[in-house]
């Protein structure tokens, strides 16, 4: 009777965790948010997760039962504590990733889950070797899931991280432009024009409107930033790879771009963090990444239709730049 009650209890708790995870996950392929995520090439097809998890939950439940049966509460106390911890973290992952739509929080969670599984295996191996071995496939699958989670976080950065990456890449391209040969300057300049165009678009369409709502100071900063964007885009499109003074003019423009970046990162980003919070910034970053990919594809045509260098005088001394 004792064994049957123990089996029923452990099976019930494990099945309950599986059910909660299933309810939190829902149908990912029908989720606009999940479909919009940029996923790694080694992401398995959706249909594979149900059979894999069904098999794993069976082994998880049987392992927990064996650990309890062989050692009892006294000898298996540490093992059962790790068992309970991994079940809680297991259920929380689905809630964080799919319900809260926060891959970053889910990544922190799955790291703890892996540690709890490893702790269970380590403590249980002395109580019942079979019970410990039954958790090895589970640990392997969670390690793979951690890799997937980490890659999704990397490919889908939060709004501020995405903008910081763009800022760093702009600075790198300006440096490359200074050191480039005549043959490669045209390609680098085109990359820089496309990056600035797509960066301005995602900020002005998605990021700035959310920040502007944070208050009067935020609205003033955003207004100046938008003026800067217009000026910088005009100036970058006036640069020509064939201009003998390209390096000098690009260096002047780089200085102004870096000034704009510094103001944005030191003044606008802190307002955004406080007003929006990490969860909203993560979701916003996903929207911005999607638009940035489309904007980059259109930026080549925009650059071709921009003003020609002969049509106006380049103003890289800052005299006509909107004042902050």
Look at the structure and give the CATH class of the largest domain. Answer: Mainly Alpha
**Count of beta strands:** 0
CATH superfamily (homologous) name of the largest domain: TspO/MBR protein
Biggest sheet record: none
The total count of helices amounts to: 11
Overall pLDDT, averaged? 85
> Approximately what portion of the residues adopt beta-strand conformation?
under 5%
State the helical fraction.
over 70%
Low-pLDDT segments = 307-319
Question: What is the domain total for the residues?
Answer: 2
Structural class: mainly alpha
Order of helices and strands: HHHHHHHHHHH
Q: Name the assembly state.
A: single chain
State the separation between the terminal residues, measured CA to CA: 78 Å
Whole-angstrom Rg: 27 Å
Per CATH, the architecture of the largest domain is Up-down Bundle
Structure write-up:
The protein is mostly helical and 324 residues long. The chain folds into two domains: 2-155, Ferritin, CATH 1.20.1260.100; 159-311. Helix content is 80%, strand content 0%. It is built from eleven helices and no strands. It has helices at residues 2-25, 32-36, 49-75, 77-99, 103-124, 129-133, 136-155, 159-179, 182-212, 216-238, 246-304. Helix 5 runs antiparallel to helix 7. The longest helix has 59 residues, at 246-304. The chain is elongated, with a radius of gyration of 27 Å.
């Amino acid at each position: 009777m004792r064994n049957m009650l123990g089996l029923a209890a452990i099976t019930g708790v494990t099945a309950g965790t599986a059910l909660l995870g299933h309810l939190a996950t829902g149908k990912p392929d029908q989720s606009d948010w999940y479909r919009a995520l940029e996923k790694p090439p080694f992401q398995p097809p959706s249909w594979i997760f149900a059979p894999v998890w069904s098999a794993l939950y069976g082994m998880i439940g049987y392992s927990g039962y064996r650990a309890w049966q062989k050692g009892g509460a006294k000898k298996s106390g540490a093992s059962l504590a790790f068992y309970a911890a991994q079940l809680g973290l297991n259920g929380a992952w689905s809630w964080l990733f799919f319900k809260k739509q926060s891959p970053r929080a889910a990544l922190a969670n799955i790291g703890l889950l892996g540690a709890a599984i490893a702790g269970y295996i380590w403590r249980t191996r002395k109580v019942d070797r079979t019970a410990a071995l039954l958790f090895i496939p589970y640990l392997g699958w969670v390690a793979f899931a951690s890799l997937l989670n980490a890659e999704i976080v990397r490919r889908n950065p939060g709004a501020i991280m995405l903008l910081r990456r763009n800022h760093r890449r702009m600075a790198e391209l300006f440096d490359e432009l200074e050191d480039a040969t005549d043959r490669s300057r045209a390609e680098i300049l085109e990359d820089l024009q496309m990056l600035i165009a797509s960066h301005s678009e995602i900020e002005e369409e998605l990021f700035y409107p959310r920040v502007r709502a944070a208050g009067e100071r935020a609205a003033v900063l955003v207004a100046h930033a938008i003026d800067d964007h217009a000026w910088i885009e005009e100036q970058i499109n006036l640069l020509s790879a064939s201009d003998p003074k390209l390096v000098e003019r690009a260096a002047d423009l780089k200085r102004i771009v870096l000034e704009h970046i510094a103001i944005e990162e030191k003044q606008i980003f802190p307002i955004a963090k406080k007003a929006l919070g990490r969860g909203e910034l993560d979701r916003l970053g996903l929207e911005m990444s999607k638009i940035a990919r489309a904007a980059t594809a259109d930026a080549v045509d925009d650059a071709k239709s921009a003003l020609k260098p002969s049509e106006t005088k380049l103003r890289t001394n800052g005299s006509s730049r909107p004042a902050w």
